């Protein structure tokens, strides 16, 4: 037997595993590195987050990625070059973190690498009948494995698509395994570049678990912070706090087929970008708004569309349910923006709000942890049946790269 297969088998038989989850999201702010100790699988999964770091991306890397990120027309060579480059870089960043944490790479059982999404194209967006849902993450796992010497799981989203999903949100699986609680209807709301949520029913029934993207989280706020402030984001929503929401622009922003489409659905900066806002401004004759009003309107746009999506679920899931029966646990960078969270709380006054941190997982680390949980599930789980629910196919995900 190939010794690496034997090694994989041995890892699967261990009582617990140390898995490093990696996530680099649509905000391009950096690489989240979460070292997890995981035992069990499915609803028996227990995760201890031993270490966590976000390694910021430097401007050079951000600019290299932006030349192809969410663009329909690119220089193909750039995509080809970035694929191994990002894989090698992520591998090196893992080694740097382990060095800082004084941990020998040989103590790590596996890496679970999301890679960098460069294009997301669900069918509802590309609208070409003969093509399926599609998404592309780069930073090939073979390079991560070769650089670190650690077995690497990567490219998690293709299996989801192969079984009828849109390749996202994948958080639903880890959310269910880690945060499902009998007796409490939970909504796990992640506000990264794009916002999404998982609904976890109080009866714990996997076949009614639900997930969807809701639209922009921070992606437009960041784009306009770069423009108005020359900063990566509007810290604590300070600029937005000084402005007034413009109702005409807000209405124009909310007029898009994505918001009327049925759940579950996914999106990305391919749709929600500066051109989208400029087109809405032209339509609503609001091209000369002051920066503060632009920011206030964009933050309200994110809050309104998140709240609308959650309200629709509260009604859809069971007409008797009331907002008061739901607890919303927030995570992702948007949870640090009081302008966003404050508006959300006003829009959903009867829901209880908290942070994922109160459930034992740092909200900034949550997505990276989720990929570690997905790799663990591929190794030792796969026994949870999610029913025929669209968006949550019953599959395990991640391709295996051996270091040698
Ligand atoms: N103090 C803060 N004030 C305002 N916004 C903040 C603050 N801290 C973080 N953010 C926002 O959070 C963003 C980063 O969020 P996060 O790391 O969750 O995104 P991501 O994982 O890249 O996105 P996605 O989940 O869509 O892939 C920043 O770009 C910024 O917009
Ligand atoms: C294609 C892609 O990278 N989608 C991301 C993105 O960032 C947030 C939202 O859009 C979510 O659907 C997804 O990531 C998380 C980790 C997910 O799949 O759950």
UniProtKB/TrEMBL annotation:
Function: Catalyzes the specific phosphorylation of 1,6-anhydro-N-acetylmuramic acid (anhMurNAc) with the simultaneous cleavage of the 1,6-anhydro ring, generating MurNAc-6-P. Is required for the utilization of anhMurNAc either imported from the medium or derived from its own cell wall murein, and thus plays a role in cell wall recycling.
Residues that, per the record, bind ATP: 25-32
Protein family according to the UniProt entry: Belongs to the anhydro-N-acetylmuramic acid kinase family.
GO molecular function, one term: kinase activity
EC number: 2.7.1.170
Keywords assigned: ATP-binding, Carbohydrate metabolism, Kinase, Nucleotide-binding, Transferase
Taxon lineage: Bacteria, Pseudomonadati, Bacteroidota, Cytophagia, Cytophagales
Entry protein name: Anhydro-N-acetylmuramic acid kinase
Coiled coil start-end: none
InterPro entries according to UniProt: Anhydro_N_Ac-Mur_kinase, ATPase_NBD
PANTHER family hit by this protein: ANHYDRO-N-ACETYLMURAMIC ACID KINASE
Catalytic activity field: 1,6-anhydro-N-acetyl-beta-muramate + ATP + H2O = N-acetyl-D-muramate 6-phosphate + ADP + H(+)
Pathway, per record: Amino-sugar metabolism; 1,6-anhydro-N-acetylmuramate degradation; Cell wall biogenesis; peptidoglycan recycling
Pfam family of the protein (one): AnmK
The UniProt record lists the keyword Kinase: yes
EC top class, as a word: transferase
Transmembrane segments: none
